[in-house]
Amino acid sequence: MHLDISTKSVWIKPQDPSTICAFKREFELQESTKLTITVTADQRYILYLNGERIGRGSERGDIDNWYAEEYTLELEKGKNILTALVWCLPKELRPHAQISRDRLMFLVATQEEHLELLATGNAHWQYKNIEGIYFDHPGMINTAQWMTGTNLVIDASDFDYNCFRLGKGDNWQDAQNVNFIQTVRGTAHYGILYTQKIKKAPLALQIDRKINPKEFSVRAIDDCEPTKESIAYKIVENSQTEKIKAIESALKNNKSITVPANTSRRIIIDFNQYYCAYPEITVSGGKNSIIRLGWAEAIFEKTDGSYRKGHRDEVFGKYFDGKTDIFLPDGGQRVEFCTLWWKAGRYIELIVKTEEEPLVIENISFFETRYPLEMETSINVSHDGFMKALPIMWRTLQMCSHETYMDCPYYEQLQYIGDTRLQVLVTYMTTNDIRLPKKAIDICAASQHPDGLVLAHYPSYTPQIIPQFALYWIGMLYDFALWRGDKNYIKSHLFTMRSILECYITKLRDDGLVDWPEGWDWNDWPEEWQKNDGTKEIPTTFKGLCSINQFLLVYISGLAIEIEEWIGDKTMAQRLKDFRATLMIAIRREFWCEETRAFALGNTKKSFTEHTQCFAVLSGMLNEDELAGIKHNLLHNETLHRATVYFKHYLFETYYALDCTEEIVKQLDFWSGLVDRGFKTTIESPEPSRSDCHAWGAHPIYHVYASLLGVRPNKLGDRTLVHNPKPGGIEKIEATMADGNGSILKLKL
To answer: Are 721 and 372 within 8 A, CB to CB?
Structure first.
């Protein structure tokens, strides 16, 4: 359903081009009033009522899925003011996940009786261009990819926080109506498809909560010189113990910190947890001073681009290399700085350089932001390693859950389908909230290309194809059908599922294998695949015609067959069965190695991987002899290319299918080892890992329920949970589990 926004409420914009501007609506009421408004902007807004922030948006989507948030306002008798900071950044400055029409616009809609009071296009709205915010690309030494948007430089001599928060200042002008229809009510009028369809935001508002400063600690203070360039400074241990204690006490107790005139000072703050947050800093004095506020997941051992970080608790002798915003005070009293978008990490580098005036940092606060995902369930396992790792796994899922799921909050903030499937499975186990999983399925389906494939990550203005991830979208759809069982919802996505598979079916070769679609041929991060010197066999050596990809197609086609049979289309199901049978004949001929009794990576039959054996087992198409050979290889063949963090989910699924879940338990040591090395979240890949916060590493939570406890739905269409425990040597598991109907089930081993 498209949002029913009155056509009397229209977009407004500045009369002259602007990247950032403020809108305000001042009004007076004869009595206190409670009313509801709907708000959206292209691209983003921060909304204030009488100077208090009440929301941020618009929730990320795409042009055909543009979202608007709803707010209930408690308006006071007398004067009121509703204000919004709105910005529209070009592609080179904004996060890759931010789609836009590249035209700064703002819209407020409300009930018919309040149109003249607040609705844009009806009420008297004004705007003012915001000056003093400039943009600076990160220039980090150790980053290979940074897709989260630009750094900011904010100059207080031109920038006034009160301008957009309280609607103060001069030069406000009347906003201009944008002359095009912004929504479709019901069906397209005369069949015309409008360019931006507004829908009600499907998610709850993001958390906006001040982080308790008593959690912080100050790890180091020194006198390094700040510049406007990105420079990684070594943190040298020193004896300024009393200074550290004094500044830490000031932070914890919301007291001011004074940096004397003609001084350079750096403070390294440790959140002692991983956070995604917006900073707010209030300063007085300090004219011509420079403030640099940097964020890092960890401190680097070297600045050679190797991502070597060592123990994550250690800072001395290492380099702070992070994403940094710059604030330039103008000497005024209680000058406030804030940022347009949040940043992520554990460590903060605060560098201040003063000139002739001392700078007083009146307050520095951080406001956590994320989707309000909370664990509704509990897990108690008689395995110290798992229980030690559980908090960091859950924290990772929270930090990668925002207006979409994300691969990582620090480097990319992109909803990759392969990552998201695993995140959704953990969500199903631990909460009855299905809004974020459904949005993931829906919005990724909206990225479908004419060839049938959906994009590897979406929403995003950078179209990327990973053919495997298009297949994993079908896996996500199957998981929803299995764990949440909404047949009508599944029907709404049959076209997408069938179109994806059609892309592969039409590439069936005369020899029975399938030509792999063009794109990034990616499956995992094994060390053997990272550097190909011409002597190693890796999946890309075979240009898509490797056993991993062919078996993945067999596995996913099997899930699609179950969906088709559940929906009741026997013809489509049989067509897929015939396709699988043809493909399996070719796979056995090309890849089965009788000597090794396993499927080889390529038809040269020289290399073998865990990945191929996993998809082979999960396909359900093997005979007993093949299963026995593969099980032996998985347990005893040390030459197999090993799965890393992400793909271990499918390895654990395979161990469950082969009744050897003790191997899952053995591998939990990897996760508990992260805690021993100071991690607060789970990593992207084996060390040296780029990302310290990658939520595909939370999947062992799912496997405690689905593999060790063995609790899984009976089949599609039958939500009865079958309890087939395979504890792998663990003596005691007590847990509660979300059933998808709003209830919490008690489970015990």
So the answer is: no
State the sign of the Cα–Cα–Cα–Cα dihedral 440, 446, 447, 453.
positive
Rounded to whole angstroms, how far apart are CA atoms 328 and 330?
7
More confident of the two residues 667 and 227: 667
Tell me the two tokens of residue 576: 């897929």
Task: Please report the pLDDT score of residue 717 as a whole number.
Answer: 85
Helix (H, G, I), strand (E, B) or coil at 110: strand
Answer yes or no: pTM beyond 0.90: yes
Average pLDDT over residues 363-370: 97
Query: Averaged over 24-52, what is the pLDDT?
Result: 95
**What is the DSSP pairing of strand 52-57 with strand 66-75?**
unpaired
The answer for residues whose C-beta is within 8 angstroms of residue 13's C-beta and 6 or more apart is: 103, 104, 105, 106, 127, 175, 176, 178
CA 544, 549, 551, 555 torsion: positive or negative? Answer: negative
In 3D, which of 443, 432, 517, 514 has the Cα closest to residue 473?
A: 443
Closest-CA residue to 441 (of 491, 397, 502): 491
Q: Spell out the residues 6+ positions from residue 730 whose beta carbon is closer than 8 angstroms to its own.
A: 381, 382, 383, 665, 708, 749
Structure-model confidence comparison of residues 345 and 92, the more confident one: 345
- 67: helix, coil or strand? strand
Please determine, for residue 188, whether its predicted confidence score (pLDDT) is greater than 60.
Answer: no
CA distance linking residue 608 with residue 613, whole number of Å: 8
For 239, residues 6+ apart whose C-beta sits below 8 A from its C-beta are: none
CA 216, 254, 353, 92 dihedral sign is positive
SS3 486: coil
What are the backbone angles phi and psi of residue 563, rounded to the nearest 5°? -65, -45
Query: What mean pLDDT is predicted for residues 212-227?
Result: 86
CA 101 to CA 109: how far, in whole Å?
Answer: 20
Where b means 16+ CB within 10 Å and e means fewer, 223-245 reads: ebebeeebbbbebeeeeeeeebe
Q: DSSP secondary-structure letter at 130?
A: P
646-672: per-residue pLDDT in tens? 999 999 999 999 999 999 999 999 999
Please give the backbone phi and psi of residue 303, each rounded to the nearest 5 degrees, phi first: -115, 40
- Distance CA(66)–CA(334), nearest Å, equals 37
Lowest mean pLDDT among 35-39, 133-137, 278-282: 133-137
